Amino acid sequence: MSYDRVEVPDDGEKITASDAEGQELDVPENPIIPVIHGDGIGKDVGPAAQQILSAAAEATGRNISWMRVYAGETAREKYDENLPDETVEAIREHRVALKGPLTTPVGAGFRSLNVALRQTLDLYANVRPTYYLDGVPSPMKSPEEMDMVTFRENTEDVYAGIEWEAGTDEVEQVRDFVEQDMGFDSTIHEGPVGIGIKPITEKGSKRLVREAIDYALEHDRDKVTLVHKGNIMKFTEGQFSEWGMEVADEEYPDEEVFAAPDSLWETQEDIDIPEGAVMVEERLADAMLQWMQLRTDEFDVMAMPNLNGDYLSDAAGAQIGGLGIAPGANFGDARCLAEPVHGSAPKRAGQDQANPSAITLSGALMFDYIGWEDAAQLVKDAVEETISSGKVTYDLERNLEDAEKLSTSEYADEVVSNIEKLS
Ligand code: NAD
Fold first, then answer.
1. Where are the alpha helices (DSSP H) in 145-272?
2. Most buried one in 18, 27, 125, 351, CB count within 10 A?
3. Phi/psi at 129 (nearest 5 deg)?
4. Ligand 1 contacts CB of residue 324 (under 6 A)
5. Catalytic residue check, 157
């Protein structure tokens, strides 16, 4: 790919795949990392995150050569395109990247660029660790009980983008097919209808659940909960859970990974999970949203189809103090696109007010992924140190007594100075 329209840094090296299957990464000490600042508050938090992550890399003896690429509003301004090929190819070729939020219009307009990027690059697992940072105001009595990681399937389900608009010939063809050929005669009401398709495949389900189990094994977590609505959507969400349980049953030694009996209807607190083993259980998605609040400390790693994951991870983010601090990353085979859970928050855009913690902590996930665990820990410690010292952005300040309200850029400077102190 030629990057004629993008400035390629001349002082960095590419991260490459070190084995034939392309699963393992070779990471130089001075990698080129593509970055999309994104729309709305992305203009504020993107540069702030770059500044903090660069400082953590330097403090641990490395250097990041950022390669700025464009999507959304900035790409429309520069190239009159939403998602230029260069951007997709830069991420494909450089293997890891950092991304700010991108606006998606509701109803008419273009399809979600976030979904397009995840699908095109086959970044099939959206991973969101949700843990409490000391000093963050939370609506919960014991927010510190939350320490879970959600694995959200990223490429299928009702987000696959297979849908037809009301009033089109296509939607009427689908209606006829469903009613006449498939025999669902009076299931769809008369009059205009929009129809979408919910594909859940064996491949998509199993690779996601496998990622979640491997993560649990590697990070000493003892439980993986499959969250689905298979009692109603038997052949999609129910099948997701069956395939997930098959992975647990068939792909790992029993002493390493085992499926909990009857876990859909029974709580599992009496089951003794041996040291180093992982139990795989299942929960219905609606019930899960209440268990997450009432029995927060019982949950650990969760794996679920796309839509459940979208809802559940935002709700989990609220329990530990809101979207301003909730990080995430999308993973495929030997690829990682780190991005915060939050969106572009247009009301605050360009005002140097938004909280850059979420995108910065997403960058820490990216560091972990490339084996820079020391830099990742430094970023997390410096963010926590800054917040617990009462120096915070507006979103946290309004829920805290005696806190000092900082702008995005002042906050970034403060985190950098804590990186310097802690390293
Ligand atoms: P949002 O996350 O942008 O905002 C929700 C609320 O959280 C707002 O009150 C906002 O002020 C606050 N908030 C979010 N991030 C914050 C931060 N870093 N600091 C301080 N406060 C913060 O969600 P929305 O309003 O539903 O969506 C706005 C746009 O973002 C939509 O176009 C949506 O499609 C898009 N979006 C993109 C992504 C993504 O790029 N991955 C994710 C979610 C939403």
1. 169-176, 202-218, 239-250
2. 125
3. -75, 135
4. yes
5. no
Specify whether 391 is catalytic.
no
Tens-level pLDDT at each residue, the chain (423 residues): 666 677 778 889 999 988 766 678 999 999 999 999 999 999 999 999 999 999 999 999 999 999 999 999 999 999 999 999 999 999 999 999 999 999 987 766 677 899 889 989 999 999 999 999 888 888 899 999 999 999 999 999 999 989 999 999 999 999 999 999 999 988 899 999 999 999 999 999 999 999 999 999 999 999 999 999 999 999 999 999 999 999 999 999 988 999 987 777 766 667 888 889 999 999 999 999 999 999 999 999 999 999 999 999 989 999 998 888 999 999 998 999 999 999 999 999 999 999 999 999 999 999 999 999 999 999 999 999 999 999 999 999 998 989 999 999 999 999 999 999 999
**Ligand 1 within 6 A of 103 CB?**
yes
Tokens of 278: 């992982």
**Among 33, 46, 20, which Cα is nearest to 339's?**
46
Tokens of 126: 């959206």
Q: 195-196 and 163-164 as β-strands: parallel, antiparallel, unpaired? A: antiparallel
Please give the helix or strand (H or E) that residue 361 lies within, else none. Answer: helix 357-369
Nearest-CA residue for ligand 1 atom 1 is 343
Choose, from 85, 286, 297, 333, the residue flagged as catalytic. 286
Whether 321 lines ligand 1, by a CB cut-off of 6 Å, is no
User: Are the C-beta atoms of residues 160 and 127 closer than 8 Å to each other?
Assistant: no
Instruction: Look up 405 and say whether it is catalytic.
Output: no
124 flagged as catalytic: no
Rounded to whole angstroms, the Cα distance separating 147 from 149 reads 7
Rounded to the nearest angstrom, the distance between the alpha carbon of 343 and the centre of ligand 1 is: 3
Q: Whose CA is nearest to atom 38 of ligand 1?
A: 343
